[in-house]
Automatic annotation (TrEMBL):
<dbReference type="InterPro" id="IPR045865">
    <property type="entry name" value="ACT-like_dom_sf"/>
</dbReference>
<dbReference type="InterPro" id="IPR029753">
    <property type="entry name" value="D-isomer_DH_CS"/>
</dbReference>
<keyword id="KW-0028">Amino-acid biosynthesis</keyword>
<keyword id="KW-0560">Oxidoreductase</keyword>
<dbReference type="InterPro" id="IPR002912">
    <property type="entry name" value="ACT_dom"/>
</dbReference>
<dbReference type="Pfam" id="PF19304">
    <property type="entry name" value="PGDH_inter"/>
</dbReference>
<dbReference type="InterPro" id="IPR006140">
    <property type="entry name" value="D-isomer_DH_NAD-bd"/>
</dbReference>
<keyword id="KW-0718">Serine biosynthesis</keyword>
<dbReference type="InterPro" id="IPR029009">
    <property type="entry name" value="ASB_dom_sf"/>
</dbReference>
<dbReference type="InterPro" id="IPR045626">
    <property type="entry name" value="PGDH_ASB_dom"/>
</dbReference>
<keyword id="KW-0520">NAD</keyword>
<protein>
    <recommendedName>
        <fullName>D-3-phosphoglycerate dehydrogenase</fullName>
        <ecNumber>1.1.1.95</ecNumber>
    </recommendedName>
</protein>
<comment type="pathway">
    <text>Amino-acid biosynthesis; L-serine biosynthesis; L-serine from 3-phospho-D-glycerate: step 1/3.</text>
</comment>
<dbReference type="InterPro" id="IPR050857">
    <property type="entry name" value="D-2-hydroxyacid_DH"/>
</dbReference>
<feature type="domain" description="ACT">
    <location>
        <begin position="456"/>
        <end position="528"/>
    </location>
</feature>
<dbReference type="InterPro" id="IPR006139">
    <property type="entry name" value="D-isomer_2_OHA_DH_cat_dom"/>
</dbReference>
<dbReference type="Pfam" id="PF00389">
    <property type="entry name" value="2-Hacid_dh"/>
</dbReference>
Length: 531
């Protein structure tokens, strides 16, 4: 059945067409996002949800999203999505980090000009037939200092354009290196320094716990008298009440805001104040940007739902379509290795070490790690997947480490997973054969070569005669067909293991009969998700 995607905000038609062309069943309901009850009632039907900013993906919506695999934001900020709840539920969250950055940077520059020359008020006055030439005295940008808070993609473009306008640019961004700042031709400064020196301040940080209220009442008090403040990033970054007071007192000469603490904004402390320019969250509103983000969202979601390729996800390592093709069998193997250990382990897991050898060590290990951890966690929590597994492991305090090494044995590459619990260490290794099928190649240090099936039986025993016959006879007596039988032993008469790939589940009684022979140290039925 084709995957189903819901578009619950106003997205360019281009997205709808791409979904259709890719064979995805798409439901375009651009106003649904505004009605959280209706959205909660229908979300369970969909594999994917494409949104802009009106849809709020809360934990309540996610609780009903029983089939959801991916949420994609046609835009940059994902503060309207509860990403923790999505990760715990195993839902990938994607955005389109580049599609609207130029458009938004241009809006910030336009807002800077607008507030420097009071263009909106001058325009309204002229439309009204007044000719108030002396009322609208402005300031030049040339030679002025622009303080940029957040010098990432959008802030970086704003810096570039401002330098073209012959402004001096000072940037505050703890994650901006001196070297990058130098390349950008900007001065990297501390926030207090920026506040004290800037004639214009523009914000380009995401809304997070650290950036909320970054321009607080106290921060605004540290700004230069006559400063003009531009916010085209997110409402809530600036204390709007305190800014309104600073505008009224004349300390701040002007403000240009595209985003507000409450949106849609119908009332706001800044509304109606002189030299405050406001736009209704238009930063990304150009034909070009909307086309870009819509196309990207549709392509990214289709790729993920149809091929497993992951692009621009915030809670999952990226996997290109090419990688997904090459890595597919290795991801399956990683999941099987995890599932083997998960099913064998009854105690709490303290640490997981994953060794990558040979060709596999050069692959996208983040994705493989997620698959191993998900395989292990599934035993205790069947809903865990590659997205939620690292979150669940972190919550349980499980240490995850990886080791890489060049080709060390007969296989071109293999993966070995070792799990440490309070009581013991347990390990299993596997590889992918040229037929693209995963094989287990070592358990407890004992070499084997076992194809993985949906139903398997694992036994351990002393290496004595009669084991094969007992297994064959007992399973035969219970009408269980053996598809593949693999044996291994540490040394002659030493420890031995058997892995049987069987055609269906094993009846309880068969397990009991095997136990009752007294020949086996362990008899364990295993299940694997095979395609
Ligand atoms: N108005 C609009 O329509 C519109 C459009 C697009 C994006 N946005 C907003 O703009 C924001 C920035 O977008 P971007 O593409 O430049 O993102 P980005 O991730 O490329 O850049 C954000 C920058 O902020 C910096 N940063 C993070 N925490 C910081 C802190 N505490 N102090 C200072 N700097 C900090 C980061 O290091 C990064 O360089 C988005 O998160 C979104 O909320 C608004
Ligand atoms: O969708 C929009 O119009 C706004 C997008 C913008 O806020 C973003 O974060 O990309």
């Amino acid at each position: 059945m084709a995957p189903k995607v819901l578009i619950s905000d106003k997205l360019s038609d281009a997205a709808v067409q791409i979904f259709k062309d890719r064979g995805i069943d798409v439901d375009f309901q651009p106003d649904l996002g505004k009605d959280k009850d209706k959205l909660a009632a229908v979300i369970g039907d969909y594999d994917g949800l494409a949104i802009r900013s009106a849809t709020k993906v809360t934990d309540k919506i996610l609780a009903n999203a029983t089939n959801l695999k991916v949420i994609a934001r046609a835009g940059i900020g994902t503060d309207n999505i509860d990403k923790d709840a999505a990760s715990k539920k195993g839902v990938i969250v994607m955005n389109t980090p580049f599609g609207n950055m130029i458009t938004t940077a241009e809006h910030a520059i336009a807002m800077m000009f607008a507030v420097a020359r009071q263009i909106p008020e001058a325009s309204a006055s002229t439309h009204a037939g007044k000719w108030e030439k002396s009322k609208f005295m402005g300031v030049e940008l040339t030679g002025k200092t622009l303080g940029v808070i957040g010098a990432g993609n959008i802030g970086g473009i704003v810096c570039d354009r401002a330098r073209g306008l012959k402004m001096k640019v000072a940037a505050y961004d703890p994650f901006l290196s001196e070297e990058k700042a130098k390349k950008m031709g900007v001065e990297k400064v501390e926030l207090d320094d920026l506040l004290a020196r800037a004639d214009f301040i523009t914000l380009h940080v995401p809304y997070t716990d650290q950036t909320a209220n970054i321009l607080s009442k106290e921060a605004l008090a540290k700004t230069k008298k006559g400063v003009r403040i531009i916010n085209c990033a997110r409402g809530g970054l600036v204390d709007e009440e305190a800014l309104a007071e600073a505008l009224k007192s004349g300390h701040v000469a002007g403000a240009a805001f595209d985003v507000f603490k409450e949106e849609p904004a119908t009332e706001n402390p800044l509304f109606g104040l002189p030299n405050v320019v406001c736009t209704p969250h238009l930063g990304a509103a150009t034909t070009e940007a909307q086309e870009n983000v819509a196309l990207q969202v549709a392509e990214q979601m289709s790729d993920y739902l149809l091929t497993g390729a992951v692009t621009n996800a915030l809670n999952m390592p990226s996997v290109t379509a090419e990688e997904a093709k090459v890595m597919g069998p290795w991801i399956t193997l990683a999941g099987h290795l995890g599932a083997f250990i998960g099913q064998m382990t009854d105690e709490a897991v303290k640490a997981i070490n994953i060794l990558y050898d040979g060709q596999v060590s050069e692959m996208n290990l983040n994705a493989l790690n997620c698959a191993v951890v998900a395989g292990i966690m599934k035993r205790a929590n069947p809903d865990v997947n590659m997205v939620s597994a690292p979150v669940v492991a972190r919550e349980k305090g499980i240490q995850i480490s990886t080791t890489n090494q060049g080709k060390s044995g007969v296989f071109d590459g293999y993966v070995k997973v070792t799990v440490v619990t309070e009581k013991r260490e347990r390990s299993i290794a596997g590889t992918v054969f040229s037929d693209g099928k995963p094989r287990f190649i070592q358990i407890k240090g004992i070499n084997i070569e076992a194809e993985v099936g949906a139903h398997m039986l694992y036994t351990t025993n002393d290496d004595v005669p009669g084991i094969i016959g007992t297994l064959g006879q007992t399973l035969g007596a219970h009408d269980v067909n053996i598809a593949n039988f693999t044996l291994g032993r540490s040394t002659a008469k030493g420890e031995a293991i058997a892995l049987l790939y069987i055609d269906g589940p094993l009846p309880e009684k068969a397990l009991k009969d095997l136990h009752d022979t007294g020949l086996f140290k362990q008899v364990k039925e295993l299940e694997f998700e095979v395609g």
